[in-house]
Specification:
The complex is a heterotrimer of chains A (about 180), B (about 300) and C (about 725). With about 180 residues, chain A is an alpha+beta fold. In chain A, about 20% of the residues lie in helices and about 25% in strands. In chain C, helix 9 crosses helix 13. The chains are: A alpha+beta (about 180), B mainly alpha (about 300), C alpha/beta (about 725).
C-alpha cells in the first residue's frame, strides 16, 4: 500500500502563490475558485512577530470525513496512495462533505459537483509530481509515499520538526509542514 | 496580535462557511415536525383512537405527507447537481447519515401512506371509491392498525433523530459535534408537532393531552439545550468557542430571544397556565413554539457553519 | 471534464501527445500553434509544447507553452533555462491569463475626445499607420527628427527603438534606470568600473551570510534570486534583513533590523566603522585591490554605533553583532546591492556605501559574492548606419547629471517636453510602460503630454497612459509573437528565443511587424531589409553559429561558462581611474561630489503623517498585470499596511476601507487596511501597481490605491538623475 502526501518546508516558502496559479492552469480550475491557497499567520509584537507561511490544500486525510459522510460514494479514496477524490458523475452536490471538512478544502464547481485538490492524480499516475510541487520556485514542497520509509517525504519527517493542520479534528491529514 | 490572512475566497466557503442556506434548516425543521406528528398519530393509532370520530390521526398523516414533501423539496433545491439525485438510491453508504436518511425516507412514505389509508381524506376518497374499501378492510384488522401505528412511531423517531445526527456526524463543525443534538432535534420536533396538534385538534381530550405533553417536551428541551451547552463549554477550545457563538457571540440575541424566550420559556408559561385552567387555551403559545423550532434549526445550522476547529 | 475521464483522455491521447510533440520539434515553421491545421482545416488535437521566453516581468525566464486542442493551456519553465531551471514564478505561470485577459487591447484605436477621456474610434492598422506617419513627417520637417521621444520598457521595444533611431532621434529613455536600478549601477560603476546588471551578478546560492537592505526577495519575485535565496535558507545561511517592514525575507532572517526609513546610509557607514575599528575587514583584499582605505577609515570614524542608535533606531549592540556576523562569513557575505533603489535622492551614495561594504568584506569576485558574468555573443543585424542626430539629446542638457542617461533620462525627457528646452519635443512613442504610474508626479506627465502633437502608445492592456494617446496600437502578448533574442550577461551565458505559442485572439500585432510596417510608411524601407522576423532572427542566429530552426526546438542555447571567481581565474581588473576598487572615488572628487559617502538626514513625517513606502507583491508586475484574472484571483487589490498600534489609535481595523491623503492634499482611491505587527509606526506600506483609474481596465478599475498618485514629491539624485520617491507622507481619511 502507498500513502501519498506532501511535506512542505515553511522555512523556504515565501508565499508567492505560484502553487495556486499552477494548479489553476493545470486543472482548469474555474476562475474565482482555488483548490490550494496561501495562509500567512503572524503572531507577536513588532519587531519580534513570528510569521508562518503555509501552502494549503486538501489534506487527503487517511480518516477523511468527506468520504464517510458522502451519501453516494462520490467522495472516495483512490486505489493508488489513498488520494481522496470526487467522482463527478456520482456527486449530487449535497455539500455534506463541504460541511464535514475542517480545512474548507472543498467547493462547489460551477458545473454542480464538488471539487477540490486531486494531488494532480493524472500527473501522479504518469510518475510526475503534482503541478504545485513541480512549479514551486523555492523547492519548498515535496510529494511522495509515507508508507515507503526511504521516500524523500518519509526521510524529511524523520529528520525535521513538523506539524500538520488540525490533527485534533481526527482526520489524520497527510500534509506535513516542516518548521 | 494574531493575524491570519489567506488568499482563498471560494464561493460558499469564505470568509465563513455558508454552503447550507435556508433550505437545510427548513428541511430539518419540517423533518422534525413530521417526525413528531408520526409519533403522535402512530400513538393514537396504537391507542385505537381510530374509533373516535374526530381523532387528529385522521388528518395528521396527510399533513405529514405534504410537509415531508415540502421538506424534501427544500432539500432537493439545495442540491447543486439535481439531475443526479437518483444516485442516492444506487448505493447505501453505511457511514453516511444522509444515505441513511435517504433510505429511511423510502420507508417513511409507505408508512405514511398506510396511515393515510386508514382514513383517507374525503376529497381523495370521493374521487377514488376503491380507497374507501381498502380503508374499511384495514380498520377491520385491529392488529394492522396497531402495527401501522407502531411503524409510524418507530420511523417518526428515526426521522427525528436522523435530523440531528445528520449535523452531529459532521465533526468539522464543533457546535454540531455534540452527541445530544439528535435528542434536541427529536424533542424539538415532538414539541413542535404537539404544539401543532394542540393548535388544530378538534378533540378536546387530544388538545389537553398534547398541551400537557408539549409542556413536558419544552422542559426537556430546555434541559437538553443546557446539557448540550455544558458539554460544549467543558470540551476543547474549539467547542467552547462554538458554544460562545450562541451564548454571547453573533448568534446570541437570536438564540436567547427567539429560541429560548419566545420559543420555549414564554409559551411554556402560557401553556402551563392553560393546562392548569388559569387561562383559556390560546393559539399564540403553540404558534410561538412552532416558530421557535424553525428558528432553532436556522440558528444551529448557521452558527454551526460559523464554528470551526482552530 | 471530471478527473476520471480526463485521466482517460490523457491515457488515450498519450500516443498522440508524443506524436504531436515530435511533430512540434520537427516542424520548423510553428507560426504559433494554429487553432486550425493548415492542411486539414480542422482543429489541432492533442498537446503541443512550444518553447519561448517569458515577459510577465523583465527577468525573461525561458518557458514552454502548452497548447491543448488548439487552446493555450499552461506555461511551464524550460528545464534547460539557466534563469528559471524549469520553474517559473507565479506571474510566469499566470501568463496564460494575459492571453485570455478580457480587458486587453483588441484593435488599433484613434482618439475621438480630449486626451484622457478614453473615447475612441476603432481603425484599421493601415489607417493608424497613415495617421502616425503623417504626424511624424510633420514633426520632422517642422522641429527636426530629434523632437520625437521614445519611452520604452522591456525587450519588446527593441524594434520600435530601431525604427525611431532610423527616423533620426536618440531621445530614448526607460524608467528601468531612473525609476529603478540606476543609482545602484552608477555606484558600482564608480566603485568597481562595472555594473551589477540584471540578472544581478549576485551569487546568492553560495553565500553564507546575506544582507538585505530594503530588498524584499520573495515579494520581489525575480526568479533566479528567489530560487537561490531559498537554497541559501536551506543551507542555513545567516540572513540579516534591514527593513522598516517585517518583509517575507525578514521573517526568514537570523537578524532583523527594523530601521527607521531613510537612514540606511547611516547604518552602512556605521557597519564600516565597526568592520574597520574592530579589524574585521578583509585586509589582504583591501590592500591588493582597493584605493582610498585610509581616507575611508578617517571618514567613517565618526559613525559609531552609539551615534547610529538614535539616527537609525538600531541598538549599538545589534549593529556590532551583525557587523561581526558579516565578518565571520567573509568573503562569502553578500551585501545585496538591491535593485529598485530610487528612495531618497542620495541613492547613488548609498549604492556607493553598499559597494564599499562589499569591498571591505572582500566579496566582489569571490564565491557567495558579486561574481563574473559573460554574454552569449549574438552579433546585431547588419543594418545600414542610422542617421546622426543634429542635436544632442534633450533629456540631460550640458550633462547636468554627470552619470545620467545610461538608458536615457526619463524625467529629463519629460521636462524637455514640458518646457520646450533645450528644444521642443513634439511626439512620444510609449512602449510597454505606463508612464503615469512609473514616473513620479503624475501631473507633470499629464501636462507634458498636452504639449505633444503626437502620442502613440503601444501596449497589450489599456493602461492609464493609453487613455491619453492619439493612437493606441494593440500589441500581441509575448506568447503570441516573435521578439528580439535575449542574451544577457549572466554566470551561465545563453541566448533564448521568443516565438509564438498561440495566435493572438483579435487584431493584435507583434512589435516587429508594427515597426516594419510603420517604417515602410515613413520611407525607411532600407532599415527593414528582412522579409519577416524569422528571416531577421535566423540571420542573427546564423552569425552566432546557431539557427532559427534549432532555437525553435530548444528555446535556449547555452554559451561557455566564464570563470566566476578570482580563484577560478576571473581577472581582478577594475575599470576605474585608479584601476582599483575606489573606496575613495577620484572621479567624484574631480566632479566636486563627496568622494566617500556622507550621511545626510532626510525629512521626517509631521505628526499624524506616515512615510509612504511601496514595494512589490510576488504575483504582480508593476501596473501591468492587474487585469490578469489568474493573478487577480490571488490578489485583486492592495492593502495599506499600518502598524497595529497606530491603527488602534486611528480606530482602524483590518478590512476597513480608508483613503490616503498626502502632504500635498492628493487623495487616493479607497484602500483596505491591514493592521499589522509587521511594520514600524512611522511609515505605511502599499504594493505598487494597483489603484487603476482607466475605465478600460474593467477588472482593475478602482481596486486598491496607487502609490504613484501619492508620489507628488520626488528628490533627484544629483549624480545620475534618479528620482527618490520615498519622501512622501500620508495621513488617513476614514470616510471612505
Amino acid at each position: 500500500m502507498a500513502r501519498f502526501g506532501m511535506v512542505i518546508d515553511t522555512r523556504k516558502c515565501v508565499g508567492c502563490t505560484d502553487c495556486v496559479i499552477a494548479c489553476e492552469t493545470e486543472n482548469d480550475v474555474p476562475n474565482g475558485f482555488a483548490r490550494d491557497w496561501i495562509v500567512q499567520i503572524s503572531n507577536g509584537k513588532f519587531p519580534n512577530a513570528q510569521v508562518e507561511i503555509l501552502s494549503e490544500r486538501c489534506n487527503h486525510c487517511s480518516d477523511a470525513p468527506c468520504v464517510t459522510t458522502c451519501p453516494t460514494g462520490a467522495s472516495h479514496y483512490h486505489d493508488i496512495g489513498g488520494i481522496v477524490l470526487v467522482n463527478h458523475d456520482e456527486c449530487i452536490g449535497c455539500k455534506a462533505c463541504i460541511e464535514s471538512c475542517p480545512y474548507g478544502a472543498r467547493f462547489v464547481h460551477p458545473e454542480g459537483y464538488v471539487d477540490k485538490c486531486t494531488f494532480c492524480v493524472h500527473r501522479v499516475e504518469e510518475g510526475l509530481d503534482p503541478a504545485c510541487v513541480s512549479v514551486c520556485p523555492t523547492h519548498c514542497m515535496h510529494f511522495g509515499d509515507f508508507d515507503d520509509p526511504n521516500s524523500e517525504v518519509s526521510k524529511l519527517l524523520q529528520s525535521r520538526k513538523h506539524h500538520s493542520l488540525l490533527p485534533e479534528a481526527g482526520t489524520t491529514p497527510n500534509i506535513y509542514y516542516l518548521t | 496580535m494574531l493575524e491570519i490572512t489567506t488568499t482563498r475566497h471560494n464561493h460558499l466557503i469564505d470568509p465563513i462557511l455558508h454552503a447550507w442556506n435556508w433550505e437545510i434548516p427548513v428541511y430539518l425543521f419540517l423533518g422534525g415536525l413530521v417526525a413528531g406528528m408520526m409519533i403522535i398519530s402512530g400513538y393514537f393509532l396504537f391507542k385505537e383512537r381510530v374509533k373516535e370520530d374526530n381523532c387528529s390521526c385522521f388528518y395528521l398523516p396527510m399533513i405529514s405527507f405534504v410537509l415531508l414533501s415540502l421538506g424534501m423539496s427544500a432539500l432537493f433545491l439545495d442540491l447543486e447537481h439535481k439531475l443526479f439525485v437518483w444516485r442516492l438510491y444506487t448505493t447505501f453508504q453505511i457511514t453516511s447519515p444522509m444515505s441513511w436518511g435517504a433510505w429511511i425516507l423510502i420507508l417513511v412514505y409507505p408508512a405514511l401512506i398506510a396511515n393515510i389509508l386508514i382514513r383517507p381524506p374525503k376529497f381523495i376518497a370521493n374521487k377514488i371509491p376503491k380507497l374507501a374499501e381498502v380503508s374499511q378492510k384495514l380498520i377491520e384488522h385491529k392488529w394492522a392498525v396497531k402495527n401501522i401505528g407502531v411503524v409510524n412511531m418507530l420511523l417518526g423517531g428515526m426521522v427525528g433523530m436522523y435530523t440531528g445526527i445528520l449535523l452531529s456526524s459532521l465533526g468539522a463543525r464543533p457546535l454540531w459535534s455534540t452527541s445530544v443534538l439528535w435528542l434536541l432535534f427529536l424533542i424539538s420536533g415532538l414539541s413542535g408537532a404537539a404544539a401543532f396538534v394542540h393548535l388544530i385538534a378538534k378533540n378536546v381530550y387530544e388538545r389537553e393531552l398534547l398541551a400537557k405533553s408539549d409542556n413536558a417536551f419544552l422542559i426537556i428541551e430546555l434541559f437538553v439545550i443546557a446539557m448540550m451547552i455544558i458539554g460544549l463549554v467543558t470540551s476543547s477550545k474549539s467547542h467552547m468557542a462554538a458554544a460562545h457563538l450562541l451564548l454571547n457571540g453573533p448568534f446570541a440575541s437570536v438564540f436567547w430571544i427567539f429560541v429560548i424566550a419566545l420559543g420555549i420559556v414564554i409559551p411554556l408559561y402560557i401553556q402551563l397556565l392553560a393546562v392548569n385552567h388559569k387561562i383559556k387555551h390560546t393559539p399564540i403559545a403553540p404558534i410561538m413554539v412552532i416558530i421557535g423550532g424553525l428558528i432553532l434549526r436556522f440558528v444551529i445550522v448557521a452558527a454551526g457553519q460559523h464554528s470551526h476547529w482552530f | 471534464m471530471n478527473s476520471l475521464s480526463r485521466r482517460r483522455f490523457l491515457k488515450i491521447s498519450g500516443a498522440s501527445i508524443a506524436a504531436a510533440s515530435a511533430l512540434t520539434s520537427m516542424n520548423s515553421v510553428v507560426k504559433g500553434a494554429q487553432k486550425v491545421s493548415e492542411k486539414t482545416g480542422k482543429s489541432v488535437k492533442g498537446i503541443q509544447k512550444i518553447p519561448t521566453y517569458c515577459s510577465m516581468c523583465f527577468w525573461k525566464c525561458s518557458a514552454i507553452g502548452y497548447v491543448r486542442d488548439g487552446k493555450l493551456w499552461k506555461v511551464e519553465g524550460n528545464p534547460i533555462d539557466p534563469l528559471s531551471a524549469g520553474r517559473l514564478c507565479p506571474r510566469g505561470t499566470g501568463g496564460v491569463g494575459a492571453h485570455y485577459d478580457p480587458d486587453r487591447l483588441k484593435y488599433p484605436l484613434l482618439r475621438k475626445g480630449k486626451r484622457g477621456e478614453e473615447k475612441w474610434v476603432q481603425v484599421t492598422w493601415d489607417e493608424a499607420f497613415e495617421f502616425i506617419a503623417k504626424k511624424m513627417k510633420n514633426i520632422k520637417s517642422q522641429y527636426g527628427a530629434e523632437s520625437m521621444g521614445f519611452f520604452s520598457h522591456g525587450i519588446g521595444g527593441g524594434f520600435i527603438k530601431h525604427l525611431l533611431k532610423a527616423y533620426g532621434t536618440r531621445n530614448i529613455a526607460a524608467p528601468s534606470f531612473d525609476q529603478c536600478l540606476g543609482p545602484r549601477d552608477t555606484a558600482f560603476e564608480i566603485t568597481y568600473g562595472d555594473v551589477i546588471g540584471g540578472p544581478e551578478r549576485t551569487d546568492i546560492e553560495n553565500a553564507k551570510c546575506i544582507v538585505l537592505l530594503g530588498s524584499h526577495l520573495g515579494e520581489n519575485m525575480h526568479n533566479t534570486q528567489v530560487q537561490e535565496f531559498s537554497k541559501a535558507v536551506e543551507n542555513h545561511a545567516s540572513i540579516i534583513v534591514v527593513d522598516p517592514r517585517l518583509s517575507t525575507a525578514a521573517t526568514k532572517a537570523k537578524f532583523y533590523l527594523p530601521i527607521k526609513p531613510g537612514t540606511d546610509l547611516a547604518l552602512l557607514l556605521t557597519w564600516m566603522n565597526v568592520l574597520i575599528s574592530e579589524n574585521l575587514y578583509d585586509k589582504d583584499y583591501i590592500e591588493k585591490y582597493a584605493f582610498g582605505f585610509e581616507q575611508l577609515k578617517a571618514e567613517v570614524s565618526q559613525y559609531t554605533p552609539e551615534w547610529a542608535y538614535p539616527v537609525t533606531g538600531i541598538k549599538p549592540e545589534l549593529i556590532r553583532e551583525t557587523a561581526r556576523e558579516m565578518a565571520r562569513y567573509k568573503p562569502s557575505t553578500l551585501v545585496h546591492p538591491g535593485r529598485h533603489s530610487v528612495w531618497y535622492g542620495d541613492d547613488t551614495q548609498r549604492g556607493r556605501a553598499l559597494a564599499i561594504m562589499s569591498a571591505l568584506l572582500g566579496n566582489w569576485g569571490r564565491k557567495g559574492g558579486l561574481i563574473n558574468q559573460d554574454v552569449f555573443d549574438v552579433p546585431s543585424y547588419p543594418y545600414p548606419e542610422y542617421p546622426k542626430p543634429k542635436r544632442e539629446n534633450a533629456d540631460n542638457p550640458n550633462r547636468k547629471y554627470p552619470f545620467g542617461g545610461a538608458e536615457g533620462y526619463t524625467t529629463g525627457l519629460r521636462e524637455a517636453t514640458l518646457t520646450g528646452k533645450p528644444y521642443p519635443i513634439k511626439g512620444w512613442f510609449v512602449y510597454g510602460t505606463n508612464l503615469l504610474y512609473s514616473l513620479p508626479n503624475m501631473q507633470e506627465t499629464i501636462d507634458a503630454m498636452q504639449k505633444l502633437d503626437l502620442l502613440v502608445v503601444i501596449d497589450v492592456v489599456p493602461s492609464e497612459i493609453a487613455g491619453y494617446a492619439d493612437v493606441v496600437l494593440p500589441e500581441s502578448i509575448y506568447l503570441e509573437r516573435y521578439d528580439e533574442l535575449f542574451a544577457p550577461y549572466f554566470k551561465q551565458p545563453f541566448v533564448s528565443l521568443r516565438q509564438p505559442v498561440i495566435a493572438p485572439p483579435h487584431d493584435q500585432k507583434p512589435g516587429w511587424w508594427i515597426a516594419k510596417k510603420l517604417g515602410e510608411k515613413l520611407g525607411l524601407q532600407k532599415y527593414f531589409p528582412w522579409k519577416d522576423v524569422e528571416e531577421y532572427l535566423d540571420t542573427r542566429l546564423k552569425m552566432a553559429g546557431l539557427s532559427l530552426k534549432e532555437m525553435k526546438e530548444k528555446g535556449v542555447a547555452l554559451g561557455e561558462k566564464p570563470p566566476l571567481y578570482f580563484e577560478e581565474g576571473w581577472e581582478p581588473e577594475f575599470d576605474t581611474p585608479t584601476g582599483k576598487i575606489e573606496l575613495y572615488s577620484t572621479h567624484l572628487d574631480e566632479l566636486g561630489y563627496d568622494p566617500i559617502p556622507k550621511f545626510t538626514k532626510h525629512e521626517e513625517p509631521q505628526p499624524g503623517y506616515f512615510r509612504l513606502l511601496f514595494g512589490r507583491a510576488p504575483m504582480h508586475s508593476f501596473s501591468r498585470t492587474q487585469t490578469n484574472r489568474l493573478l487577480t484571483n490571488v490578489m485583486d487589490e492592495n492593502e495599506v499596511w499600518i502598524n497595529a498600534d497606530v491603527a488602534k489609535r486611528f480606530e482602524l481595523k483590518s478590512g476597513d476601507y480608508i483613503k490616503l491623503k498626502n502632504q500635498d492634499g492628493i487623495v487616493s482611491n479607497r484602500i483596505k487596511v491591514k493592521a499589522t505587527e509587521r511594520i514600524r509606526t512611522d511609515c505605511v506600506y502599499i504594493v505598487h501597481g494597483f489603484g487603476h483609474n482607466s475605465r478600460m481596465l474593467k477588472g482593475a478599475y478602482h481596486k486598491g490605491a496607487s502609490d504613484s498618485r501619492l508620489i507628488t514629491k520626488y528628490k533627484v539624485d544629483p549624480l545620475m538623475g534618479g528620482t527618490g520617491m520615498n519622501i512622501n507622507f500620508v495621513t488617513f481619511e476614514t470616510e471612505a
